Amino acid sequence: APFNPRTAAPFVNKSISEETRRLYHRVIREFFHFVGSKNETHVTQQDVLLWRDSMMRDGRRASTVSLKLSVLRSFFEYLRAYGRITLNPAATRLVPPPPVADDPAGRALVAKEARHLFASPDRRKPAGARDHAIILIMGRMSLRVAEVAALRVSSMMWSHGMSIIKFRVKGGRERRLPLPAEVKEAIHEYLKLDRSRRRIAGTDGPEAYLFQPHTNPRRSSTTSRSRPE
Q: What are the start and end residues of each CATH 1.10.443.10 domain in the chain?
């Protein structure tokens, strides 16, 4: 019998993170499409090797390939734990992931590159002020892209004599951090420059997304998940 996606549902749904569940579902679907919906009990080491090599030929980053192999390895390990298979065909010793040490996506910026990055947005314009604030909040506070994109205006608050920002981390747990003065100033400057557009677009108010796109105002409503563009 061909692979039934429902087989993966218990594995996918065991994660409490919606983002992780989407990743698991996407990777598993991609792999079984590659192997022609072969039954999970018939998947071999060679199938996984061919999938890995196909991704590399398609120009996928080594870090992306390694992540997808990790998801697939975990899925087959789940099946092995429940007695569906006896050997994990995606085990590291059978399918080594590509080396990622030289992958530039994961390296830190040198001081000169960081200065160019911080100086690049045109802070006189709302979009540039927004980008500057995003760069600062990610650089100074180490927030993830998804965490920054989910921030609301009300995420900034005053507590115990200091400015803080609250956000949801991976897994759904709420975290609160002190807001550095330069980050707070950059956010306030952006909101001041963007005030008129938000009012006209109807995307202002405490529950509006903090960082909004400027190319299509309708996408930045308070009821839809917006991403800066």
A: 108-220
Helix 45-57, helix 18-34: angle, nearest 10: 100
- In the chain, CATH 1.10.150 covers 5-104
**Which pLDDT band holds residue 220 (cuts at 50, 70, 90)?**
very low
pLDDT tens digit string along 134-181?
999 998 888 888 899 999 999 999 887 889 999 988 777 888 899 899
Instruction: For residue 57, give both structure tokens.
Output: 């030929």
Question: pTM for the whole thing?
Answer: 0.50
d(CA 178, CA 163): 6
Question: Which DSSP letter does residue 97 get?
Answer: P
Q: Which residues contact 202 (CB under 8 A, 6 or more apart)?
A: 221
Q: What is the mean pLDDT of residues 81-90?
A: 94
CATH 1.10.443.10 for domain 108-220, yes or no, is yes
Q: What is the mean pLDDT of the chain?
A: 86
Interatomic CA distance for residues 63 and 61, integer angstroms: 5
* 194 vs 129: CA distance, rounded Å: 9
Fold of the 5-104 domain: DNA polymerase; domain 1 (1.10.150)
Instruction: Return the residue matching tokens 């998801």.
Output: 71
